[in-house]
Design brief:
By secondary structure, this protein is α+β, with helices and mostly antiparallel strands. The chain has seven helices and 14 strands. α3 packs across α4.
């Protein structure tokens, strides 16, 4: 019997991996792209107009998850509709939590043995919309992209395995003009708490393309950034901008 990934109750419901209100808003009729990668293993890719995940219970699906969707919907639609949008800290926090929740839901498309997020991290999301401790979230504008896209990569597999290895997981998603990237790292107990975790960034105009919404850098940010991502090629480049994290 499957258990809910957020409360460990019986998984009696299925969560739409791509929210239906977003699919309707985008008029998505073409297949979107979902890609998951585990270390050096070849990436697995899905093309689908809709995905449902059977690891969620009815209480979570119709409770806090539905409430979060209702809270985020006007924020996302504002980013779709307006040429310029000011996001205050509350909007940034809600959008970051929604992105984190999505990353956790998308992950169950991989083998359970390779899941990155822990039960405690998913519980914290359910109880207080709290992202894992070492996490960052960015948004960017997509140009000439009308569909849906998701790519997840476990960067830890690229580094030499050791007890001091920092494990990092990156989820990049896009809904029409909105791209979101969530990066989370796990620091081993052998490394002292409070140690800064850094990831290598591949060359690119990222400061001009992305806006960081978590941890919150500014009480107000203005969408979009000065540059955007061009079509699916831009999304692929965005998803691959990180190298394995280092402490």
């Amino acid at each position: 019997m499957r258990s809910c990934i957020f409360c460990e109750g019986r998984a009696t419901s299925k969560e739409d991996a791509w929210p239906l209100w977003l699919m309707r808003r985008l008029g998505a009729t073409e297949a979107g792209i979902v890609e998951a990668q585990r270390g050096k293993q070849a990436a697995r890719t899905w093309h689908s107009t809709g995905l449902r995940v059977g690891f969620v219970c009815r209480n979570c699906n119709s409770g806090w998850m539905s409430q979060l969707e209702d809270r985020v919907k006007p924020i996302v639609e504002g980013l779709f509709d307006e040429e310029s949008v000011v996001l205050d800290s509350s909007a940034q926090m809600a959008l970051a939590a929604w992105a984190g929740k999505n990353a956790m839901v998308y992950e169950v498309l991989r083998s359970e043995a390779s899941w990155f997020f822990t039960n405690l991290e998913r519980k914290a999301m359910r109880e207080s919309l709290q992202l894992p401790p070492v996490s960052s979230v960015w948004i960017a504008k997509c140009v000439e992209h009308a569909g849906v896209y998701c790519k997840a990569s476990d960067l830890g597999g690229f580094a030499e395995v050791s007890k001091d290895q920092v494990k990092t997981y990156v989820t990049t998603m896009s809904f029409g003009p909105l791209a979101i990237q969530v990066i989370s790292s796990k620091v081993p107990s052998s490394i002292s708490s409070g140690t800064d975790v850094m990831a290598n960034v591949r060359l690119g105009p990222w400061s001009q393309v992305t806006l960081q919404i978590w941890p919150i850098q500014s009480e107000q940010i203005t969408w979009p950034a000065s540059m955007g991502l061009s079509s699916e090629f831009g999304l692929e480049t965005f998803s691959e901008r990180w190298s394995p994290a280092k402490s």
